Amino acid sequence: MKLPQLLIELHKSSQSLYLPAHGRGQALPNDFRSLFNCRAGVWDLPELEEIGGPLERNGAIAKSQENSAKKIGVKKGWYGVNGATGCLQAALLAAARPGKGVLMPRNVHKSLIGACVLGDLFPIFFDLPYLSDRGHYSSPNAKWLEEVLNQVQTTGIEIDAAVLIHPTYHGYTCNIKPLVNLLHEKGWPVIVDEAHGTHFAFNIHPELPKSSIEAGADLVVHSLHKSAQGLSQTAALWLQGDRIDPKTIEKTIACLQTTSTNALLLASCESAIEELSNPKTRKRLRKRVTEGKQIYEKLVSQGIPLLKTQDPLRLILNTSHVGLNGVEADKWFTKHGLVAELPEPGCLTFCLGWAPQKGLARIFAKRWKELITTQKKWGRLKPFRPIPTSIITMPSMSPRIAFQASSKKVLIEESIGEISAELISPYPPGIPLIFPGEFINEKKAEWLIEQRFNWPNKIPDDISVISKFG
Ligand SMILES: Cc1ncc(COP(=O)(O)O)c(C=O)c1O
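Above: inputs. Below: predicted complex with pyridoxal-5'-phosphate.
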């Protein structure tokens, strides 16, 4: 089947519980949808004078970015057409200088490791509270971060910036303001990866967590296709305060982003933000959040092992509770018409998105009963183990140097004592299991071997390690 046809036909009769959150077009904003009533392609325009681009002073896009920044309450904003990935990389490269340290949680998205490689930045990873019943990292609190900062001080490394994630892919959040304050007390600009929390920034529902913008973060990245109603690849980068110069951000965006930004995607950025801020459409979105809460409560009341999260648009099924790997369960659900977003060893996460999910609770409960009777698993999987690490982990060599060094492939079993030259990070969720420049000790190798079993067919048997220094 050719690609265009495949895009239409694939999972046509299934319920899409994955991202982008517009649910295969059902929840695309009306003004944006009207583009598709015109001749296909008529909107595919270059950076004409009237339109401009994300880095132009004049034109409709500059005006639109300005309006959107005002709506969200920040000094400046840029639309992105390379996902949250592009915006996060531009943000980190603007905030930190080559060779300097950047503090980041161990569950960062791999795009930030990419930024460290590109900018020769030195990541200092901090450990996080771990939920071993499901194999997820949760979010730290201020006490946890204080302990991290005490440890960081002992390294003597000069740090240029810090990164936080809020919420995680699964929708776990924390009270982010005290964390931002602690990092600001150190004099560091704070970048928040809020890819999964655009809706938090618009206060559409009183029970949703507060955005990191309200908490005073300097740079905040939203993925408009993951947590608003944009097309895939749409994103936004917001700047507030005076710690980062907007000109530096424009320089890094110019290095990373195409000179031919797609007009359709830019229009989608605007309409996704407009939808979250317009009183008329917000009412509809509030309903989706309430619906998500009701689906969760209905399913939990029937004994289905869903996990609590702070984002009602995520349903996390704890498959390990009945002895099933989420990756195996995903295959079964897909075959039976429910296509999830994020299969992991202990869970299967479904994203409700912004389209109505009529009848989902009933069909979900039915499928769950069928699954547990046909799969005949007993008991729970054994608790998951986090990456063996101390409160902070640092690379043995700069990820940039490790990435470009001469390397050789060895079996993971034979990698003890070596330095990784590569990133291993099953996607989704894109959390690095090992990064370039990381030293492989016995515990780490053992843990990676265990992950091969946890992530069937997603982790290679071998790993690239540094073969020659210098
Ligand atoms: C936490 C987090 N940040 C950033 C990204 C990157 O987003 P995008 O795919 O829009 O580039 C992802 C993608 O899964 C993510 O989960």
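The chain has three domains: 30-279, 280-375, 395-466.
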